[in-house]
Amino acid sequence: MLEKKLSNPELAEKAEKEEEDYFDYFYDTPGSAPGTLSIEEDASPSTIILIDYNEAKASRTKIATPDECKLYLDTESVSWVDVQGLGNEDMWHKLASVFQLHPLVLEDVVNVPQRPKVEEHENQLVAIALMVLPKENRAGFESEQVSFVLGKHYLLTVQEKPEHDCFGPVRERIRNAKGQVRKHGADYLAYALLDAVIDGYFPVLEDYGERIEQLEDEVVLNPNRNTLQEIYKVRRELLALRRAIWPQRSAINALIRGQSYLISHEVQIYLRDCYDHVIQVLDILESYRELTSGLMDVYLSALSNKMNEVMKLLTVISTIFIPLTFIVGVYGMNFNPEASPFNMPELNWYWGYPAFWTGTIAIALGSIYFFWRRGWLQSFDSINKD
Q1: Are 55 and 176 in the same domain?
Q2: 20 to 30 Å CA-CA from 262: which of 78, 148, 173, 322?
């Protein structure tokens, strides 16, 4: 996470919340040496799972120490070393010694999150990707960096959290010898895992599609302050998703156009399909961002519409009471009818009071009937429902 030094507790809390909503890429402390590792104290302990397979058989082993991986690196079978959890710095230095990782590669793998990218080193190809998974309540998503180090016969993957990925279907295909994964080398395995990361965006986008549909109905039928907050929240989360998937487009394109001997021509063809999936994700994201921007305009229009209806209702009520107020004001004046025959002779009528109420009620009902005939009362149903 970003290193911040904020003396104000409120600003610090706000910054931490923003870090949860966005992908804040790691940067080193100014002046620190290249390759400096920065592992959080609450990082999950590392679990090393090794899956070794060929077309005939496959085995899964839990590795106790990184040194045990040396036995599998020079074999003709494909060795998938999956490190789950960032663990501690000593373990990573041992793992770097076994796999001959460059200090800068180790820094990118451990100091998370990094911007998705692809780098070619001597006898290795390094790729950084961001994996997203839906939250349990299907509102929002969780992000996690996945690092790939591809060798001739092995693939090293590093995840931030243990047992928290979208690689289950790939493991099943290896275990049950389904598909093409056991018929190809480590480069195909890297493609299969990278494709699983990209495909993991679609369930998240599906959830956002449902949330946007609900917001559309709410904006039209009953817009309120909570609706506005939800629209802003969805827009921010979609922006975070775009920041995650956009660099991966360039990374996969680099794998397709690269000339690394570690990626066969056949696997490059499969990577084109993965690239198409990235383009689909970006297209859906752009569509959803436009929809949320449009929802903001619809919200403001609906709110203005609702205010106009309220003002219209108040105007109708005021118009009904204007003549009644005039009559009451006239007969509320203190004129003495005994002084002159022109000083309100109605005050001496025997039926004067009933006549007053009959007249006022008739004027009120006549105004309501006039408004109804004009169709001005039909648009108040939505206000009554609210």
Answers
A1: yes
A2: 173
